[in-house]
Amino acid sequence: MKKTINKVLVANRGEIAVRIIRSCRQVGIKTVIVFSDADKETLGVKIADEAVHIGGTRSADSYLDMQKIIRAAKMTKSDAIHPGFGFLAENAKFVKECDKNGIIFIGPTADHISKMGDKAFAKKTMQEAMIPTIPGSKDIVTNLKAASLEADRIGLPLMIKASAGGGGKGMRIVNTMDELHDMYNLAKNESKSFFGSDEIYFEKFIANPRHIEVQILADKQGNVIHLGERDCSIQRRYQKLLEESPSPSISDRMRREICDSAVKIVKAIGYENAGTIEFIVDGDNNFFFMEMNTRIQVEHPVSEMISGVDIVAEQIRVASGEELSVKQKDIKFHGHAIECRINAEDFFNNFMPCPGTITKFIQPGGQGIRIDTHVSQGSVISPHYDSMIAKLIVHGNTREEAINKMRVALDEFTIEGIHTTIPLHQNIMDNADFQAGKVTTKFITHSLKLDEKIFIEIEVMKAG
Known about the structure:
By secondary structure, the chain is α+β, with helices and mostly antiparallel strands. The protein has three domains: 7-106, 3-Layer(aba) Sandwich (Rossmann fold), CATH 3.40.50; 135-204, 2-Layer Sandwich (Dna Ligase, domain 1), CATH 3.30.1490; 210-463, ATP-grasp fold, B domain (D-amino Acid Aminotransferase, Chain A, domain 1). Helix content is 35%, strand content 24%. It has helices at residues 14-26, 43-47, 66-75, 92-100, 110-117, 119-128, 144-154, 177-195, 252-269, 300-307, 311-319, 399-412, 422-429, 432-435, 443-446, 452-463, and strands at residues 7-10, 30-36, 50-55, 80-82, 104-105, 158-162, 172-174, 200-204, 210-218, 224-231, 235-236, 239-240, 242-245, 273-281, 287-293, 336-343, 345-346, 352-353, 356-357, 360-362, 369-373, 380-381, 388-396, 414-416. The strands form eight sheets. The protein has a five-stranded parallel β-sheet. Strand 2, helix 2 and strand 3 (50-55) form a beta-alpha-beta unit. Helix 7 packs across helix 8 (177-195). The termini are far apart.
């Protein structure tokens, strides 16, 4: 049944809040944004039609407080809530609260979030659907005796993962049996601390993999499309730093197989709205299902740039009961896109977070260059939230053209008053392995370590 959405409350902050507000405005939907004490002067608050203060600086007092957000939606007569990513985006309880209060949640159902958020359950579901999965434990590993037996069966090295987790939390690599006891307990404790659950499972550790993910969209009528794959291999401590599409490291045949597998998965579980199916590709070009993210991703602009599809606008259509505006046959992929995450971190000091006031902010421009950000000159970067302050996305007819555009854009991008990761991305663009498309999740340690001299040169240039 179709439901009219006239007003959307954005339950998030930062660049994703601004991104959602802009898509809503472009399709004639009014917006409300909630904000904490630290965010009252941010761009999202300035451009939304309405803004509601919901509490203190701590996320627990504001962006994670379900009842405050529900009250704000009801008070402003918002028809729907868009959660963005992070905070309550993958919280099934929050979706149920929205349902209970007659508010449309712009995202998947609570059931899909719960099931696909449970990594062990998701893996079992993939095996039943005949999708390749990384060899590992069939169920949750509940004690050290079971851990020892599973380690013997799977073989070393192995990866311990939090069943309810993501973002590199609750993950440990076990190289020897002597490490198993400590790594097992560390993973359980970290999982409990971050996700409220200490359930863990084991997987065979794949050395130097590539991280490939597929953007999907699905409506309530059973239509499912993909917007191609993204290569997210460049990471630090399991946190993505740069994404690009199409992947330079897989063949066209594998690209078709991976994208077809993602669509098959979505159809098999009856999923709806936006989501991402993530895969690991090993050195022998075998790909394995890793996990599903039941939300919009930080790197979604890469897929938008090569497909021309507004993912947020499609999310709203689906949530209102409409069909997707495009079919798979309508999508024509064009060129190459790269996204660099610009974080407020001191690249030269072990990526130390760098809060403070931005004293100078000059954005790059030109054809095929997009900036998603919520900051400007004078903005204060709070130490209480994620350090990402901008996403720089470029599009070129070829990968070489995209790299050259990114290099120029990074040179033009001026942010003073705080340290950022711009020098890191400049170094990546100049790296021979990156230019050749020889990228794995070990790129930062295996490839960039050869370029320490460049780090110093860039720092000297910026200081001088």
